[in-house]
Amino acid sequence: MPITDSQDSTSDEIFALPNAPPGSDFVQLFTRGQRRLFLFILSHVPNPIEAEEILQETNVVIWTKCDRFQMGTNFLAWACQIANYEILKYRDRCRRDKLCFSDEFIKHISDAATERFEESDHRRRILNECLSKLRREDRELVQRRYAPGESGKGIAKQLGRPVNSVYQSLGRIRRTLLECVNRHLSADAAGHGI
């Protein structure tokens, strides 16, 4: 059935395709952001099933508007803004429920969550930079330890080292990373990078 001018414009948006297929960089950002986007939505919606539905609606909008995203900008902030609109639509649908919060409260929470996401991304970039400054052996030890299914005992056995020695090395590396991250954060707070 063709869409007429009298039909809801949201149905046009839902079935509209982007002008050009999204590039692999966009697809990677989209895929990597799914868990964090879901957690953002879940922080606004009391029910995980409803949060999942809102995520799916958000994904449809993100996909249809992918040509509007500026590569190099913060994908998660952009996606969270879209999710925020979808959350507001959800809230309009459940307005008669007494447990709904005001739009102002939701906006405040949304702004705070977006700020935390940006801060978390900033800290992750700093941590990656600090990891890159480690000696190759230390970086490999950390990467092995935090690989899925790995344990300090297992790594000690693979390396032929005492378990205590591996844990001491990991403790030293963690302290080094913490000091590096704190230096960067202090420098950022003072207004100049390292």
Highlighted features:
194 residues; 9 helices; elongated
What's the story with the biggest beta sheet?
Answer: none
**Count of distinct strands:** 0
Low-pLDDT windows of residues: 1-20
Q: Beta-strand percentage?
A: under 5%
Rg, alpha carbons:
22 Å
Number of domains: 2
- Give the helix proportion (percent range): over 70%
Explain how this protein is built:
The chain is mainly α. It folds into two domains: 1-126, no CATH class; 134-194, Arc Repressor Mutant, subunit A (Orthogonal Bundle), CATH 1.10.10. Helices cover 71% and strands 0% of the residues. The protein is built from nine helices and no strands. Helix 4 packs across helix 5 (75-93). The longest helix is centred in the middle third of the chain and has 31 residues, at 103-133. The protein is elongated and about 65 Å long.
Question: Short summary of the structure?
Answer:
By secondary structure, this protein is mostly helical. 71% of the residues lie in helices and 0% in strands.
Helix and strand arrangement:
Blueprint: H1 9-15, H2 24-32, H3 34-42, H4 48-64, H5 75-93, H6 103-133, H7 136-145, H8 152-159, H9 163-190
